Amino acid sequence: MPNDTEFTFATAASSHSNEQRFEPNEHAHEYYQASLLSAVMQGVYDGTVTIGDLLKHGDFGLGTFNALDGDMIVKNGIAYRLDCEGKATVASDTAMTPYAAVINFEPAVSLSLDETTDKHSFEGRLDGLAEAKNLFYAVRFTGRIKHIKYRNVLRQHKPYRPLLEVVKTQAEFELSDVDGTILGFRCPDYAVGIGVPGYHLHFISSDLSKGGHVLDYTLSGGRLEIDHTSSLHLELPETRSFSDANLTAGASADGILKAESNES
After folding, report:
1. Could you tell me the mean pLDDT of each successive run of 10 residues in the chain, 264 residues long?
2. pTM for the predicted model, two decimal places
3. What secondary structure does DSSP assign to 42-72, as a single string?
4. Using alpha carbons only, what angle is made at residue 36 by residues 30 and 37, rounded to the nearest 5 degrees?
């Protein structure tokens, strides 16, 4: 006999399945991305898009800053820099990003979570709701987090090291029983190199004072919201470092997952 939470997820999945039968332009707000994750993997860290310009394309998202000077989360139209001490501050509109993705968040699914759920179970349930596997999904959890482990990258200096080398010296943090938001994107497997295949999530506390790139978590309860889009816009850098980068090497799924999850 399913519990109430399982029934809620099943009902939402059923309704979302019907919702997926949309005409091509029904839900066409853009997933806008500056550069490619494969370029970041290869050490292309010089920003070419300002935060001000980035926010013209979306009010929700994530990324990093020029020279990997902290991680980024975009919440309610404001970009926050998550620094190497785990602190969050509002980013300047003139700051530059070498890689970021945003969307105007318009959730098609919204439901409550009323039981303790770990990362594996939570993302498995999200997969069940994201039935159009080849589209891009935006996901947001807001509520109580029982435990979270997150990291922030350190500012780099030229000559830049590849990301797999950088994350070996990243700053890691853990919090327990904190209110906050976890948000990010689910990219389809074929998009490896464009973004992270699977889930790429960042965290910010409810008081907007701390956050980072999510490594692991257990949720206590809150609200889950999901959006999707069939419209992808890539803004590629016209720089020598991007043109010379070996993007095929940077598009290794194993390498990207190691860099993003801190797995050896």
Report:
1. 42 42 54 97 96 98 97 98 97 98 96 95 93 94 98 95 92 97 96 93 98 98 96 96 92 84 58
2. 0.88
3. TT-----EEHHHHTTS-SEEEEE-GGG-SEE
4. 115
